[in-house]
Amino acid sequence: MYGDGKTSYDKSNDGKHTELAGCSARGIRHASVPTKMRLTYFQDKQLKLELQYKVEDEWQTCFDLEEPPAIPNIAYVGFTAETGELSDNHDIISVAAKNLYTQPGTSNTGKSSGTKNKGRKGTGKTANGNKQGGSWTWFFTKIILFIIVAGGAYVGYTAYRAKAKSHRF
């Protein structure tokens, strides 16, 4: 459903007049792998929904719109549900939102290899290869190394001072 914030959901027709796109996902219930959804939006270029419910890391394209509706630059993510008579329970376990950028000179449709970072979870790099901000582990490692160096310098200086004091006479 593509809503404008004012139009209400038509329960009697199951929201058909506000439907933007959709697909059938047979076998999504009791799937052998965790069911996941990946929504990719390139501003004014592409809106694509992919589902993972058959095999791990195998994404089925639900829909791919080359001319999506305009979404404001400042967007809000919300999850809600309202249906006609048929309903089902779904638990949202986690949500991850990422910014995608294309390399200069490439297509913005998301079909170039520079826009996806498939199979590279946790590498610390964005899809275009730029390094993201560091992690807390690296920060704490630097702090611990600094404390060790400062402690070693203090012990060395204290030993030097004690040795110099004993050789005074």
Automatic annotation (TrEMBL):
<dbReference type="InterPro" id="IPR005052">
    <property type="entry name" value="Lectin_leg"/>
</dbReference>
<protein>
    <recommendedName>
        <fullName>L-type lectin-like domain-containing protein</fullName>
    </recommendedName>
</protein>
<keyword id="KW-0812">Transmembrane</keyword>
<dbReference type="GO" id="GO:0006888">
    <property type="term" value="P:endoplasmic reticulum to Golgi vesicle-mediated transport"/>
</dbReference>
<keyword id="KW-1133">Transmembrane helix</keyword>
<feature type="domain" description="L-type lectin-like">
    <location>
        <begin position="1"/>
        <end position="100"/>
    </location>
</feature>
<dbReference type="InterPro" id="IPR051136">
    <property type="entry name" value="Intracellular_Lectin-GPT"/>
</dbReference>
<dbReference type="Pfam" id="PF03388">
    <property type="entry name" value="Lectin_leg-like"/>
</dbReference>
<dbReference type="GO" id="GO:0000139">
    <property type="term" value="C:Golgi membrane"/>
</dbReference>
<dbReference type="GO" id="GO:0005789">
    <property type="term" value="C:endoplasmic reticulum membrane"/>
</dbReference>
<dbReference type="GO" id="GO:0005793">
    <property type="term" value="C:endoplasmic reticulum-Golgi intermediate compartment"/>
</dbReference>
<feature type="region of interest" description="Disordered">
    <location>
        <begin position="104"/>
        <end position="129"/>
    </location>
</feature>
<dbReference type="GO" id="GO:0030134">
    <property type="term" value="C:COPII-coated ER to Golgi transport vesicle"/>
</dbReference>
<feature type="transmembrane region" description="Helical">
    <location>
        <begin position="136"/>
        <end position="160"/>
    </location>
</feature>
<keyword id="KW-0472">Membrane</keyword>
<keyword id="KW-0732">Signal</keyword>
<feature type="compositionally biased region" description="Low complexity">
    <location>
        <begin position="105"/>
        <end position="116"/>
    </location>
</feature>
<dbReference type="InterPro" id="IPR013320">
    <property type="entry name" value="ConA-like_dom_sf"/>
</dbReference>
<dbReference type="GO" id="GO:0005537">
    <property type="term" value="F:D-mannose binding"/>
</dbReference>
